[in-house]
Write a structure and sequence with these properties.
mainly alpha; MetI-like fold
Length: about 260
């Protein structure tokens, strides 16, 4: 009697079915926890159509007085926040890279700082800085900066660790000082990654800074929050359209800069 070939053994099949059952149970538990109301789902298409009708036509006349200055503030927040983040993240990245700083306690402490930065959302950072400095662009700039430290520092630190050790060892053997080793041995290897990370993070920060105003941290989000609170849906559409245009322009700009720099 010939035996039928099976791709998985009994134990493997049992494990696979256990995973499937766990996923289904997790989905069911999550659906019950969020308390989805079926009645709200039924009339959601009608509510969306009504909202779109209220948002049309777009209030383009509102742009000069109510959107332009806030949009410029958003770009300033994203740009200055990125610059501050790079200035703070590079030293931490040097301390986190094992080949640059051969000290495990220092490496772990630096990585703890990077993880702490990434673990807190930009809106939470914004709430903290609004409580300290009050509403405005300063809170948004610091929120963007502290949120970006973990992202920039982690990627630059990994680029440093993946670099070729040959040039560094040659400079060290020749008696070059540490700054010369850093500038001539490490920097040429990580320069493409550095600019790629900085440009990518700035692109992300443009998007994130657009919503920080919802918690009082300056930028176009404050104009959006005001229009939402006053139910001025045509102005809401104007703000959303401006955010969309800025994001598209930022994406194109970053792409062009990457082609020329990297």
């Amino acid at each position: 009697m010939s035996r039928a070939w099976r791709r998985f053994g009994p134990a493997q099949r049992a494990a696979r079915w256990s995973v499937y059952v766990f996923i289904v149970a997790a989905i069911v538990a999550s659906a019950r926890a969020v308390e989805i109301v079926p009645e709200f789902l039924y009339d959601a298409p009608e509510q969306m159509q009504d909202l779109l009708r209220r948002m049309w036509p777009i209030a383009f006349h509102h742009y000069p007085a109510g959107v332009h200055d806030a949009l410029v503030d958003t770009l300033h927040i994203a740009s200055l926040g990125t610059i501050l983040a790079v200035a703070m993240a590079v030293p931490v990245a040097l301390l986190a890279a094992r080949n640059v700083t051969p000290s495990r306690p220092v490496n772990y402490l630096a990585r703890l700082l990077l993880v702490s930065s990434r673990s807190v959302n930009s809106l939470v950072w914004a709430l903290l800085f609004v409580a300290v400095f009050g509403p405005g662009a300063l809170a948004g700039t610091l929120a963007i900066a502290f949120r970006s430290i973990g992202f920039v520092g982690k990627l630059i630190g990994e680029a440093l660790e993946e670099g070729n050790a040959g040039p560094v060892e040659a400079l060290t053997a020749a008696g070059a000082p540490w700054l010369s080793v850093l500038a001539k041995g490490y920097w040429p290897q990580v320069e493409p990654s550095f600019w790629a990370v900085v440009l990518f993070r700035w692109d992300i920060n443009v998007r994130e800074s657009a919503v920080l105003g919802l918690v009082g941290a300056g930028g176009i989000g404050m104009a959006l929050d005001t229009a939402l609170n006053l139910f001025q849906w045509d102005r809401v559409a104007m703000v959303l359209f401006a955010i969309f245009c800025v994001v598209v322009v930022a994406e194109v700009l970053v792409t062009q800069i990457r082609k020329r720099v990297i």
